[in-house]
Amino acid sequence: MRAIICLPLTGLLFLLWACGSDAETGGAAEFNDPAVMFSALEERLGSAASVHVDFHVTADGAIEVDLSGALRMTQEGITEISAHGLFAGEELQLALRTRGEDYEFGRLPDLTSGPTPEHLREALLIGLTRMGILHNLAMLSAGAPVDGAEGGVRQWAIVESLEFEGPEDEQGSTRVIGFAMKVGGVAAGSASLEIAREGHPVLRRQTVEFPDGTMHVVERYSSVSIVR
Asked: What is the Cα–Cα distance from 182 to 58, expressed in whole angstroms?
């Protein structure tokens, strides 16, 4: 797995590592413990029969990003990512699609194909919660496969020191969890993830430090469906 990848469009080193029903309530105990709440989200995603998340990712500073798209995993075993918009000064379209035992990924129209990795689904979902979806969108933009799809993503990308940031929102419907990240055993910065009481991600914020500047990333999630 790569911790650093060079994006040819920018000439910068993009620090990728630094960088039931679908309304299932976890209960008061879960909502008052950040580590339990975060783990419950990952368990809910990992055990779901189907998952759908629309996303809008923006970033400013060292690298400009404005990407919209969707992540979809079906009960029939299909996994898809589609995204379009601005990445590092270039308009592009990204895609990942499984087709039975094979899949294709990268920038449209030039996709790379190969056998579907055994742990692709887990790598995408853990990547979403721990590193943010921009991590693997950046991989796709470089024509690279999803990090951790061959296995071991939970041991490679680790979150720790989970704490609530502030009280519940005024409606008592979401909590924001801040955490530190380690990737490959190396400290990789910090982020925050807002999670709804129903157990789905709402908003993620992260700051990435580059040798020549800082990038501020915001990921907004909507139309989230997690079906057991």
From this structure: 23
